[in-house]
Amino acid sequence: MRPDVQQRLRHVKWIGGGSGAGKSTIARHLAARHGLRIYATDDAMLDHARRSTPESAPQLTRFLEMSMDERWLGQTPEAMVDSFHWFRGECFDLVVEDLLTTAAKPGGVIAEGFRLLPHLVRPLLIDPGQAVWLLPTPEFRSAAFDNRGTMWDIPNATSDPRTAQCNLLKRDHLFTERLRREVEGLGLPFVDVHGSLGEDELVNHVAATLGL
User: Fold this and answer.
1) What tens digit of pLDDT does each residue of 4-50 get?
2) Is the terminal CB of the chain with fewer CB neighbours within 10 Å at N or C?
3) Rounded-to-integer distance, Cα 107 and Cα 95, Å
4) Which stretches of the chain score pLDDT less than 50?
């Protein structure tokens, strides 16, 4: 990554991690506490899909053409991890493009979301302490989805909800373990998220990691 891009993104703090880890909640707490703006990559997904092309995002194009059963029942969890467009880093260039536009405004930004893959974020950092990844245990993830009331949203849109749910939970676990290998290999900060951590404790831990 060009040094000028790193410099232009020096105002950004990055919170990545597995699904259900509490990234959005923590980002909201830190933004309110420190007067930061939030860039939620989940909120940008529809816009990024519109701005992409079959050439720039072939896996996204394939995903959109699939039925719900093909997506969540017709593949193994391992294949889901390997083929899922956001896990492949498709449209990450649009994340960077969006964040570069925030450099013209005063104040810092917290970018958060599972799309912030360690190997893609690392070249954008002046210092590794600008970023942290939250790695939830399977138990914490399931409890988080239950609390949100979203556990069955996708599975219920298939012909076999229980199998689809199992596939999704296994896929998300595999993705989290992939993130763990990446952050450990790149020497990037991470936090294991489990039930014994209170919300305030986790927020304070992340704030300290990011130097806030």
Assistant:
1) 899 999 999 999 999 888 999 999 999 999 999 999 999 999 999 99
2) N
3) 18
4) none
Element (H, E) at 77: helix 77-83
pTM: 0.93
Indicate the helix (H) or strand (E) that contains 178. Answer: helix 161-186
70 three-class SS: helix
Q: Three-class SS of residue 210?
A: coil
Per-residue confidence (pLDDT) for residue 1, from 0 to 100: 55
Give Cβ neighbours of residue 65 (< 8 Å, ≥ 6 apart). Answer: none
| Nearest 10 degrees: Cα torsion 88, 189, 114, 176 | 70
On the 0-12 / 13-18 / 19+ scale of CB atoms within 10 A, 176 is buried
Phi then psi for residue 107, to 5 deg, are: 95, 165
